[in-house]
Amino acid sequence: MIARQWRAWAQHDQAKDYVELFGNQVQAKLKTIPGYRYSLVLTREQGDETEIVTLTFFDRLEDVVGFAGEDYEVANVSTEARKLLARFEDRVIHFDVALRLSPS
Question: What pLDDT sits at residue 31?
Fold first, then answer.
């Protein structure tokens, strides 16, 4: 399994709107990609901003390419998202999931 990580920062009042945008628009696109499994959106307050970390999980790197395109390490940030974010990372990091544990 592949984990795709990306970070951005928003003003506190815009962070909730970004999370909602991800849950509606980004998730709608992700659900059409074969091999997509699930997403996590993490937030934390940092001074005047909210840090946002997205983690999306795919079966294989080829599935990531199906979502992000051939240059899959470039952040895919929509015009709407750019309006909500103060700044964001231009590149995305990918990890192999080495271990996944459940409570049972």
Answer: 95
Q: Is 64 exposed, middle or buried (0-12, 13-18, 19+ CB in 10 A)?
A: buried
**Dihedral angle computed from the Cα positions of residues 9, 64, 4 and 72, in that order, rounded to the nearest 10 degrees:** -60
Q: Which CATH fold topology does 2-96 show?
A: Alpha-Beta Plaits (3.30.70)
Q: What is the pLDDT of residue 42?
A: 98
Q: How far apart are CA 73 and CA 100, in angstroms?
A: 23
Instruction: Write down the domain spans for the chain.
Output: 2-96
**pLDDT (average), residues 52-58:** 98
Judged by DSSP in three states, 1 sits in: coil
